[in-house]
Design goal:
It is a single chain. The protein is α/β, with parallel strands linked by helices. It has helices at residues 4-7, 10-14, 21-24, 60-70, 83-94, 111-118, 139-148, 171-180, 234-243, 251-263, 266-285, 309-318, 343-355; strands at residues 77-80, 101-104, 122-125, 129-130, 135-136, 153-159, 184-188, 210-215, 228-231, 291-294, 301-306, 324-325, 335-339. The strands form three sheets. A seven-stranded mixed beta sheet has the order 1-9-8-7-6-2-3, with helices on both faces. A four-stranded antiparallel beta sheet has the order 10-11-13-12. The chain has a two-stranded antiparallel ribbon with strand order 4-5. Strand 2, helix 6 (111-118) and strand 3 (122-125) form a beta-alpha-beta unit. The chain binds pyridoxal-5'-phosphate. Pyridoxal-5'-phosphate (PLP) is lined by residues 82-84, 109, 159, 163, 188, 190, 215, 217-218, 223, 228.
C-alpha cells in the first residue's frame, strides 16, 4: 500500500520551511499598504515595471491559469524553474543520499541521472527492449527490480513520449507500474502536446503516487522563460512547495507565461505546423540512402539511424546545422536526434544530407 509519509525523508517531514515576508503578510483588497517588510527598493530602474518587488512565492495567478488549461485544481499544480528543478526537488524530498535509489529506463532524458548523481542517489536501470518496430518498456524486468528493491527504491522516472526514442508509453503498462510500486512514479510528459496519445494526467485522481511533469519549453515555445509544472495529489504538491526556493518563478517569467497562456491559440497552431513538417521530414529523410531507419515519433523530433552517424554529424556541423548526437547512448548506436525545425530549416537539412557523400 502506498503511504506518502512513509517514503518522505525524515528531515523533510520535520522541516520548518523558510517563511518569506510575502508569506507572512497576506494583503486584503482594501487599502494601499506601505511595504517596509522585505528590504526592497521603493523604486524600479525600469519605469512601468514592478521588478523592485519580490514575486508572489505561491505564483497564485499563474498556478490558476495552468490549473485551468489542464482542468485541475490549483492544489494539484506545482510550478518549477523548468521541469529540471522539479526532478531535483522530487529526488531531494524522497531519496536519502547514499542510501535510496531511483529507477530509469535508458535510453532516456539525461537529467534524471544527473540529478540523482548530484544528490548521491543510486540509479537502477531497466533498458528499453528494441526490435524492428522500435522501443518498448521491459515491464517484466522493471517489476522484478521493483520487488527486489522494496526498501530503498523511491522514485521511478518514466518519460512519455520518451526522449530520445520518441514514442509514448502504453497507458496500461504505466498503470501496472503504479499499482505494483509503493513509491513515486514520475511520468515526464515534456512532449505530450505533440502526441496523438492522451496525457496520463487524469490518472493523478486515481493514483496518489503519480507525478506528471510538463514543461513550457517545447510545444509552448518558451524554453528561455524556464517554466515547468508538476501535477499530482495535493500532498505531493505541498511537499514540493515546502522545499522549493521561495521565489523560484521570477516576475518576468510569470508575467510572460501568463500572457501566452491567456492570449493565444499559439499552442495549437504551432503543434499543427510541426506535425506537418514532421510528416514531410519523415518521408523525405526516408528516401536518403545514408539513413537506415527513422523511428516512429510522438514528439517534435526524429531519432534516425545512419550508416555512419559521427561523420554525418560532423558534416552537418561543417554546414552549420547542429543535431543531437545520441550514438553513445545505449541502443542508439549510429543515431542522431533531429528536432523538427521550420520549413526553411528542414529544407536546408534535407539539402545538406542529400549532398553528403
Ligand atoms: C526538454 C525536456 C524537458 C524540459 O525541461 P525544462 O527544464 O522544463 O526545460 C524535460 N523533460 C524532457 C524529457 C525533455 O526532453
Amino acid at each position: 500500500m502506498f503511504n506518502l509519509e512513509k517514503i518522505v525523508r525524515e528531515n523533510i517531514l520535520k522541516l520548518t520551511p523558510y517563511s518569506s515576508a510575502r508569506d507572512e503578510f497576506k494583503k486584503d483588497s482594501s487599502g494601499d499598504y506601505i511595504f517596509l517588510d522585505a528590504n526592497e527598493n521603493d523604486s524600479c530602474p525600469l519605469s512601468g515595471k514592478k521588478l523592485n518587488r519580490y514575486p508572489d512565492p505561491k505564483q497564485a495567478q499563474l498556478r490558476q491559469a495552468v490549473a485551468k488549461i489542464k482542468n485541475l485544481k490549483e492544489e494539484e499544480v506545482f510550478l518549477g524553474n523548468g521541469s529540471d528543478e522539479i526532478v531535483d526537488l522530487l529526488i531531494r524530498i524522497f531519496c536519502e543520499p547514499g542510501k535510496d535509489k531511483i529507477l530509469i529506463t535508458p535510453p532516456t532524458y539525461g537529467m534524471y541521472k544527473v540529478s540523482a548523481d548530484i544528490n548521491d542517489v543510486d540509479i537502477l536501470k531497466v533498458p528499453f527492449l528494441k526490435d524492428d518496430k522500435g522501443f518498448t518498456l521491459d515491464n517484466a524486468s522493471l517489476i522484478n527490480l521493483v520487488k527486489q528493491n522494496k526498501s530503498n527504491l523511491k522514485i521511478i522516472f518514466l518519460c512519455s513520449p520518451n526522449n530520445p526514442t520518441g514514442e509514448c508509453l502504453e497507458r496500461a503498462e504505466v498503470k501496472n507500474i503504479l499499482n505494483e510500486f509503493d513509491g513515486i512514479v514520475v511520468v515526464d510528459e515534456a512532449y505530450i502536446d505533440f502526441s496523438k496519445d492522451k496525457s496520463m494526467l487524469e490518472l493523478i485522481k486515481e493514483f496518489p503516487n503519480l507525478v506528471v511533469c510538463n514543461t513550457f519549453s517545447k510545444a509552448w515555445g518558451l524554453a528561455g522563460a524556464r517554466l515547468g509544472a508538476a501535477f499530482s495529489s495535493n500532498k505531493v504538491v505541498e511537499l514540493l512547495d515546502k522545499i522549493k526556493p521561495p521565489y523560484n518563478i521570477n516576475s518576468l517569467t510569470a508575467e510572460t507565461c501568463l500572457k501566452v497562456i491567456n492570449a493565444s491559440d499559439f499552442l495549437e497552431i504551432s503543434v499543427d505546423k510541426i506535425a506537418n513538417e514532421k510528416k514531410r521530414l519523415t518521408k523525405e529523410l526516408g528516401q536518403i540512402p545514408i539513413i537506415k531507419k527513422i523511428y516512429p515519433s510522438d514528439a517534435n523530433f526524429l531519432l534516425a539511424e545512419f550508416t555512419e552517424s559521427s561523420k554525418v554529424f560532423n558534416f552537418l556541423i561543417e554546414n552549420k546545422i547542429v543535431v543531437r548526437d545520441r550514438s553513445k547512448e545505449i541502443l542508439c548506436e549510429n543515431c542522431l536526434r533531429i528536432t523538427v525545425g521550420s520549413k526553411s530549416e528542414n529544407d536546408k537539412l534535407l539539402e545538406v544530407l542529400k549532398a553528403y557523400k
